[in-house]
Write a structure and sequence with these properties.
Layout: E1 3-8, E2 14-27, E3 32-38, E4 42-47, E5 50-54, H1 58-72, E6 78-83, H2 88-93, E7 101-106, H3 109-118, H4 120-123, E8 131-135, H5 138-144, E9 149-155, H6 169-178, E10 179-188, H7 196-207, E11 212-219, E12 227-234, H8 257-262, H9 268-271
Parallel strand pairs: 6-7, 6-9, 7-8, 9-10
Antiparallel strand pairs: 1-2, 2-3, 3-4, 4-5, 10-12, 11-12
Helix pairs in contact: 5-6
């Protein structure tokens, strides 16, 4: 008998995968956490019934969250990741030689624990000596920080449950305060097929907080619609003005210098979401 899981991505649409094994099914202090093995995408982390990451396509998301802002900033020595307990963004951050310290603030320690156990190729860098892992509320961490980070990456779930506050203008203003004078931040901002109003609101809020604001996209098959967006806010540096000399020769599977620039070329219906 086959067991299938369906993520109901909208009221009328979902994505389905065949489950070959269930490792964990647990209600943590914050959310329902499931770690399963799938026939198509390998091990998969689910939070509140939503696909967070899979072994097969995780590199797209993690590379695009990390390398775009890290190449935009000329000297990203101290980096913060809010969320991202699976460790994939941290793994990519550590590929940059300028980074001296990467701080991870994840509210749910169970995400870290089970990712280390069942997603070792993603979470393996969490034990690196340059990484400071904190099980804490990222919103509160930002509120207490000032002029501390070169780059901040918000690797959150969709705006439900513990992540709701991570999509507010007050949070972006807190991020601006937590960044140094030439700091850069990026956040995942869902997909333009089903979440137009969210992207439009976030882009407006970030634009009112940061002098440079850009939207870029990537293709992630297990995320709703497959087309995913990211919003970058910068106090000084424009991701479109990165010189060729800035790009490191990194071991990546999706991100390249050409992709860095091409990701900001938006389809018209997506571009319109950034226009007031």
């Amino acid at each position: 008998m086959s067991i299938w899981f369906t993520e109901k991505q909208t009221e009328h649409f979902g994505i389905t995968a065949r489950i070959t094994k269930t490792y964990v099914s647990e209600q943590t202090d914050f959310q329902q956490l499931d770690m399963v093995e799938t026939a198509e995408f390998g091990n998969m982390l689910l939070l509140d019934g939503m696909v967070m990451t899979t072994e097969k396509d995780e590199f797209v998301y993690h590379e695009m969250v990390a390398h775009v802002p890290l190449h935009t900033h000329p000297n990203p020595e101290h980096v913060l990741v809010v969320g991202g307990g699976d460790g994939g963004v941290i793994r990519e951050i550590l590929k940059h030689p300028e980074v001296k310290k990467a701080t991870l603030v994840e509210i749910d320690g169970k995400v870290i624990e089970y990712s280390k156990q069942y997603l070792p190729t993603i979470a393996g860098a969490l034990d690196d000596p340059r990484v400071d892992v904190q099980v804490a509320d990222g919103f509160m961490h930002i509120a207490k920080s000032e002029n501390e980070y070169d780059v901040i990456m918000v690797d959150s779930t969709e705006p439900v449950g513990p992540a709701v506050n991570l999509f507010t203008k007050g949070f972006y203003e807190g991020i601006s305060k937590a960044l140094k004078e030439d700091g850069v931040f990026v956040a995942q901002t869902d997909n333009p097929w089903f979440q137009k109003s969210l992207i439009k609101t976030v882009f407006k809020d970030v634009s009112e907080t940061f002098p440079v604001t850009r939207l870029y996209t990537a293709n992630i098959p297990t995320y709703p619609s497959g087309l995913w967006s990211f919003t970058i806010g910068s106090k000084k540096h424009d991701p479109l003005d990165v010189s060729d000399e800035r790009f490191h020769d990194l071991a990546t599977q999706y991100y390249t210098p050409a992709i860095h620039k091409a990701a900001f070329a938006l389809p018209k219906f997506v571009q319109e979401l950034t226009e007031s």
